[in-house]
Amino acid sequence: MAQKTNPGRFFEDFTLGEEIVHATPRTVTEGDQSLYTALYGTRFAVNSSAEFARSLGLGGAPIDDLLVFHIVFGKTVPDISLNAVANLGYAGGRFGVPVFAGDTLSTRSTVIGLKPNGNGQTGVVWVRSTGRNQRGEMVLDYVRWVMVKRRAPGTDVSATHDCPPSDLPKAVDASDLVVPTDLDARGFDFALSGEPHAFEDYTPGERIDHVDGMTIEEAEHQIATRLYQNTAKVHFNQLEANGNRFGRRLIYGGHIISLARSLSFNGLANVVRVAAINAGAHANPTFAGDTIHAWSEVISADALPGRTDLGVLRLRLIATKNRAAADFPLKDADGKYLADVVLDLDYTVLVPRRG
Amino acid sequence: MAQKTNPGRFFEDFTLGEEIVHATPRTVTEGDQSLYTALYGTRFAVNSSAEFARSLGLGGAPIDDLLVFHIVFGKTVPDISLNAVANLGYAGGRFGVPVFAGDTLSTRSTVIGLKPNGNGQTGVVWVRSTGRNQRGEMVLDYVRWVMVKRRAPGTDVSATHDCPPSDLPKAVDASDLVVPTDLDARGFDFALSGEPHAFEDYTPGERIDHVDGMTIEEAEHQIATRLYQNTAKVHFNQLEANGNRFGRRLIYGGHIISLARSLSFNGLANVVRVAAINAGAHANPTFAGDTIHAWSEVISADALPGRTDLGVLRLRLIATKNRAAADFPLKDADGKYLADVVLDLDYTVLVPRRG
Amino acid sequence: MAQKTNPGRFFEDFTLGEEIVHATPRTVTEGDQSLYTALYGTRFAVNSSAEFARSLGLGGAPIDDLLVFHIVFGKTVPDISLNAVANLGYAGGRFGVPVFAGDTLSTRSTVIGLKPNGNGQTGVVWVRSTGRNQRGEMVLDYVRWVMVKRRAPGTDVSATHDCPPSDLPKAVDASDLVVPTDLDARGFDFALSGEPHAFEDYTPGERIDHVDGMTIEEAEHQIATRLYQNTAKVHFNQLEANGNRFGRRLIYGGHIISLARSLSFNGLANVVRVAAINAGAHANPTFAGDTIHAWSEVISADALPGRTDLGVLRLRLIATKNRAAADFPLKDADGKYLADVVLDLDYTVLVPRRG
């Protein structure tokens, strides 16, 4: 009669190079996409309309890229971050083949870095996690690192070399992006999509205030996080939260990413695809009742090798809580995030060229 | 580097006769219908059961008519009512071919009336909006008029004639209703549908208290309104609402229509289809925490030309907040809506005849 | 112009042996399953992944068994329990053929017991309810009994014999369980499913604390209960609840069952199917804001006749409110349920054998 429940892994339980098979696979359906729409109000044309997607050569409307991210990520939580103290960062996130309703996603992770912290209480674990569909095709591949508690105090670990892993890119290169086979944006209908702006209209350094704001309710973030089968307990258990330093359930950081991206429609309506997540910081925690605003900065605008129909925008997406974003809030004079900045995401999208 | 975000149209930005193509098309799925059921508890048999719908000759369960309304309507918000001061009325709403899961809906509007207000601050815009499926077939056609802010004070506008448009019907005539091809209600199963009442059992002037009440939560109306991709900011942003005269997020009027219609099952269970929306007033605002009750009055009961299986009921659907409807509350002695009346909807349905 | 609305049945309106056809049939879709996942965070592999289900010989991922229960049950509410004072018990619940997206469920009930209470105000009604799919195949069959108000005080009723019905089983026998045709668990993948525990690892008397807790919001239980088209008004109407002894909307007992079962994943991840509901008590009411924890006891572990791939576990699932379950709370010294115990469910599941 062994211990039946999952206590989560502690720092000592990870081995460099080990591959972890995450439970449980998940078939993504139109119902999931409906819920995603209802939770964030997203309306990017290619994900909203099967007809629009077909006009670009796709077989139907792909599942929203960030819904794919959340599902692939959610699988890793019971094995990687159940005893995490902090979610430290993301790097090298690349979206692969598009996901369509009916596809089944599963995730595996490889431990690529381990570093005990000097305090002897925690260590940092780097994992590369790969989500695949039922045909084994990569749908998302990314690195994240988390600070995890030790089971017992100490500082030594069998393998601590290569930390942070030396091949972590600062950003995914345009030539490494996966462009869905058959995607052809030459006939892109800017009127149906919502805005007249094409790739050529965006300039590095340009800042866009996305204007609108959205207030989060407890039921909403809980419904979202459970949809992703993310089991991190800090999001669901108020009884336990009564004893934490906030006295509140924490909102899953990915919920803020999706809210901010949905708000970004106002100014970035014509994004065809999220192609990469280069880096990300959850700068401050959010709670139910917070109102989220967002703004974006164009980091760079690059050609997509071999293509005249699509360009690559690398964007910085900033979300705030309880503060409008018209003045582009970010950091204070000391380079610290302002207290009302909650997200700083570096990601890459494909946008149609005017041609 | 042009302005990237949508500031919405002001009164001066509308031109009589102009056609507006609304973004973004939306494929309606079984997931949307599930959410609609979960948000309102609707259980009209023809929309609830594909088998029941097939027993009436249809190819499957049509998407709930009011879900179609909300999606078609939601598309118009960014172009028509982002700067609206008030949603003044509806007329001549006709439902066309039924919508099934997998259909893609898009909306276009034609400006059919423009009238500057004497105060020089606002004007009234009349639009006819038409929702179509991917085959170009009309699924909903209706007129609404809204009061919109001017960009700059003034009273003149290039075209102000024909206001209100002279061809607005008081109610859609029974002979103008669209009856779905193949719909045959001769074998209608009143036991499975929920009530024994047929068309012959309803009498003009009859009032029905729908008895049940439902309390609205913030998360519910937000999830609903986002499902419809309706972007009207008053429904989502508490930070901004803190500064309005209510200090609250306003609930989308269509949410109340759907709640009231769902409550109307108790007394009108056998409605096969909403065929027309003749007129409607959102008499008072609603907020989270309000409990909605509803009652109906039969305005008229008419034969459906050429049909013996279906009859036409024109109904008035009244919703209240925080007050039961057993005494049929409506207006005060001066003809003003009572403060707890929130909806007065004039609509037309198809009901099976006993034969 | 007869009374149009459903007043519900009183004790005198039931006749022994009578069969009641419940409205309205319901086509279950992938959207319903998505919502179910989002409401409870359930992630049992066979329901989560069509690929995993196919690896066990099934045609696809079956709809979650308890979602089937709630839909079949919900149909009975308008006819059986609209005037119920209390839901007294369940017995002999057997799940039949699995339900897949696209199936249409309907429910009929037979009155199998009637007993007036001595106070002359109420009586107890026993019904056997059977849910069937569009092919007439049984998907769920169970007995429940409820205390119902009398229309007029009295103690006599035409037929009061056989109460409680003499053939009510204490638990469904392993030989009476329905095992889905084609289900073959020989290749069961314990890694993908989430835990290494097979049937052989569970011991009668073993107790499992499921560790995690989940806090319920008003929007969540309302959305769930409406998804099931359950119309019991105590769950939805705060205006009326203001006058009840709690001053609160009561949460549907089935919502707690589903929450507790979802929490039970942690320790019982490899359950392939809920096969029977033997008995159940909603020990105390729950309200929004309550945090639910759960623990299980293995009542018995039996072979499944003729099968080497699956074993039968009879389980007791206990849920608490606002109290962790590590100390297995249940009853006080007098045998009364503790005030923070809210569910005591006796049910039977199929679990893969290691072989």
TrEMBL record, chains A, B, C:
Pfam families from the UniProt entry: MC_hydratase (PF19315)
Domain of life: Bacteria
InterPro entries, per database record: HotDog_dom_sf, MC_hydratase, MCH/BMMD, Thiol_ester_hydratase_Rv0216
Signal peptide, first to last residue: none
UniProt-recorded Gene Ontology molecular function terms: lyase activity
Name used for this protein in its record: Acyl dehydratase
Native organism: Tistrella mobilis (strain KA081020-065)
Species classification: Bacteria, Pseudomonadati, Pseudomonadota, Alphaproteobacteria, Geminicoccales
